[in-house]
Amino acid sequence: MPEKRDILYEGKAKIVYLTDDPDKLILHFKDTATAFDGVKRAELKGKGALNNTISSLIFEILHKKGIKTHFIEKLSNNEMLVWRAERFPVEVVVRNIAAGSVVKRLGFKEGEVFRKPLVELFYKNDELHDPLVCEEHVELMNLAPIEFLHQMKETALKVNDVLREFFSQQGIKLVDFKLEFGRLPDGSVGIVDEISPDSMRLWDAKTGEKLDKDRFRFDLGDLLEGYRKILKRIS
User: Fold this and answer.
1) Whether the predicted model's global pTM rises above the 0.85 cut
2) What's the distance, CA 98 to chain centroid?
3) Where is 153: in which H helix or E strand?
4) Do residues 154 and 92 lie in contact, with contact meaning Cβ atoms separated by under 8 Å?
């Protein structure tokens, strides 16, 4: 196992550590919950372990389907080992059901099921509040190599197919999710960061109960209770 070294970066939800292998990093998942660009914040004991465990399980599912990610292995309750990547500041969002910002921006009714998955791109920048961008913006601003962008969108749709079927089998609707991508040490492009209820909307298929971070955003119930329900079903 690589030896943990200095902190490379600390964000709202994770701490990234260097290791004695220059191509590998350790992600430590914090117990911090944030919303609205960090304006709303709370410390919830156990949140980091839940996100790390759920994210590790999802990465393993994607790996079995041949989808490239930075995930190597889960190291402990709060830590995973990943490949170091040159991360692109673009979020690829896939929506199956109307919720969140798309309702406010375009007037869809929450819960409306789209005829086909909607893919959107956002510039990852807290100061600008992660604005919606198009492919031309990505190219003009050099946010990601344009030759990789189509691959990123195709991968996101493949992830949607895999996870929508998987969650459906557990009685959960995959409403939407966001992915981040980066260039891995071998030069390929893969999914980076995390895939957890912090970055997805997941609703109970029968009751419509929201099991994701919207519980914290809008005071809909105990956040950790929702995350535990997800973990219990998928594990």
Assistant:
1) yes
2) 18
3) helix 146-169
4) no
